[in-house]
Design brief:
The radius of gyration is 15 Å and the shape is globular. By secondary structure, it is α/β, with parallel strands linked by helices. The protein has a 4-stranded mixed sheet. The chain has helices spanning about 10-15, 25-35, 40-45, 55-65, 65-80, 125-145, and strands spanning about 20, 90, 110-115, 120. A hairpin with a 4-residue loop joins strand 3 (about 110-115) and strand 4.
């Protein structure tokens, strides 16, 4: 084995993998945007809380996933199919005014910045819709190595 224990992920292991508070990077982003005269402070400072339904859906999806799906998820978010040191920052997709964008069309799909270990998620209403969209995006991104344009299901 590779020693990253993805075969045995439970609620605690998945939550330990996630970074929800934004941390130092969020403060730096706010300063950088302000320095160039930009707005967006509300958008950049918004975060999902640990009890957010969307975070619950993410945790449940990863607990229910097969080891192969977990590795595909890690590859999607970090470009490495194993759990490596560092946490994955989960960031909501928000409007310029800071409102969480709902998952309702292909312009608001989950996406990732692998260099920053950052997962961007819209707001989801049900576990079923979360699972359908997340795993479709992850599967196709892994299949096409990140150069895939999703056109819906």
């Amino acid at each position: 084995g590779v020693g990253d224990n993805v075969d045995n992920w439970d609620d605690a292991a998945v939550r330990k993998l996630l970074k929800l508070d934004g941390g130092k990077g969020a403060a730096e982003a706010l300063v950088a945007v302000a320095a160039i005269g930009g707005e967006g402070g509300a958008a950049l400072s918004r975060r999902f809380g640990p009890s957010s339904p969307t975070i619950h859906f993410l945790v449940q999806a990863l607990i229910s996933a097969t080891p192969q799906q977990r590795r595909q998820f890690l590859s999607f978010v970090t470009s490495v199919p194993i759990a490596t040191p560092g946490r994955i920052e989960v960031v909501p997709i928000v409007s310029p005014s800071g409102e969480f964008m709902p998952m309702n069309d292909p312009t608001c799909l989950p996406r990732a910045n692998t260099c920053a270990r950052r997962l961007y998620l819209p707001k989801f209403e049900t576990q079923k819709s979360f699972d359908e969209v997340l795993w479709a995006v992850v599967r196709e991104e892994c299949r096409f190595k990140g150069f895939y344009e999703w056109r819906g299901s």
